[in-house]
TrEMBL record:
It comes from Coilia grayii (Gray's grenadier anchovy). One of its GO terms (cellular component) is microtubule. This is Tripartite motif-containing protein 54. It catalyses: S-ubiquitinyl-[E2 ubiquitin-conjugating enzyme]-L-cysteine + [acceptor protein]-L-lysine = [E2 ubiquitin-conjugating enzyme]-L-cysteine + N(6)-ubiquitinyl-[acceptor protein]-L-lysine. GO terms for molecular function: ubiquitin protein ligase activity; zinc ion binding. Its EC number is 2.3.2.27.
Length: 359
């Protein structure tokens, strides 16, 4: 019991732990009240509420001087050691039953099952079982080694106490492992969040490059579209003007044909014939070249780029950031039919990602 009691002494108040009992990251235990007293003494300027520090801070373990860093909950954020609290209850219960004289209550004495009138008063060491004297003298245990119940009781009670103390120490070690595993889970979640954010950032950069290239290439097509449409509109106006003039000449010719007086007819017919000859000639009007409306020279093919994008993956070995970007930006993206891109360089693998394509 003494060795167990030593395990249950608080290093601050030097008394048996007072519940609630908290476990520190270094696996030492303190009464929460004592932990709060040490914390306040180490952080006198932190705000308190009801005598307890409620914001984050730090203090050193009084047993090993390990620095304990607390979150905004202060000592109330420390994990309770329910196992130690249960052992304290069991210890106090046992101490109360052994130290305080119990009222005069007759406890039923276990009797021997073979010799019903004999009390069990010895312990068979050979068979590891309590028995009576008659069994030793005449019964099944006459050839066995026996010992007084009291000595065996004290020995096994001492052994059980030592085993419980060892179990408490072992459980504290396991509790420490659990705390480390919880911290590992937290770190994994934080690292995963950071890496996912980095991946999204790299893809956003790719999207930005692709949007820039799309804008530049569509602007180039739109510029030629506008140029061709303007030319066709101008040519259309010239032909419309020619048609209007020719229509007026036709109308004038029809009126002349209806003239009954031959002298009047002959006065206007010659000049009209000259105008008809001029209107019939369209050689001065430009002609649209065959295939002028074709825009196929702006055809594009991104098969190589698609293969490269589909091969994007995480870096297999530890490469320095930017190693895969050497030489990027020296070639312009080209399109089929002689049209070449301008403005932004080809997409290069981003840091943390690799892109490769097989031809």
């Amino acid at each position: 019991m003494e060795s167990l009691e030593k395990q249950l002494i608080c290093p601050i108040c030097l008394e048996i732990f007072t519940k609630p009992v908290v476990i520190l990251p270094c696996q030492h235990n303190l009464c929460r009240k004592c932990a709060n007293d040490v914390f306040q003494a180490s952080n006198p300027y932190l705000p308190t509420r009801g005598g307890a520090v409620t914001s984050g801070g730090r203090f050193r373990c009084p047993s090993c001087r390990h620095e304990v860093v607390l979150d905004r909950h202060g000592v109330y954020g420390l994990q309770r050691n329910l196992l130690v609290e249960n052992i304290i209850d069991m210890y106090k219960q046992q101490s109360t039953s052994t130290s305080q004289p119990a009222p005069e209550v007759k406890v039923a004495q276990p009797m021997c099952e073979v010799h019903e009138d004999e009390k069990i008063n010895i312990y068979c060491v050979t068979c590891s079982t309590p028995t009576c004297s008659m069994c030793k003298v005449f019964g099944v245990h006459k050839d066995c080694e026996v010992a007084p119940l009291n000595s065996i009781y004290q020995n096994q009670k001492t052994e059980l106490t030592d085993r419980i103390a060892m179990m408490v120490s072992n459980n504290e070690r396991v509790q420490g492992i659990i705390s480390q595993l919880e911290e590992t889970c937290r770190i994994i979640e934080e690292n995963s969040r950071r890496q996912k954010s980095a991946v999204c950032e790299k893809f956003d950069q790719l999207y930005s490059i692709m949007e820039d290239r799309k804008r530049d290439m569509t602007l180039k097509v739109s510029a030629e579209q506008e140029e061709k449409l303007n030319y066709i509109q101008r040519l259309k106006r010239k032909y419309s003007d020619h048609l209007e003039t020719a229509t007026k000449i036709v109308e004038s010719g029809i009126q002349t044909m209806e003239e009954p007086e031959m002298a009047v007819f002959l006065q206007t017919a010659k000049s009209l014939l000259i105008k008809i000859g001029e209107a019939t000639n369209t050689s001065h009007l430009e002609k649209v070249e065959r295939g002028y409306e074709n825009m196929d020279h702006y055809a594009v093919s991104f098969l190589k780029e698609q293969r490269a994008l589909r091969s994007i993956d995480f870096i297999a070995d530890e490469e320095e950031e930017g190693e895969g970007e050497e030489g990027a930006g020296t070639e312009e993206e080209t399109t089929e039919g002689g049209a070449s891109g301008s403005g932004a360089p080809p997409i290069a693998p981003q840091s943390g990602l690799k892109a490769s394509a097989s031809s």
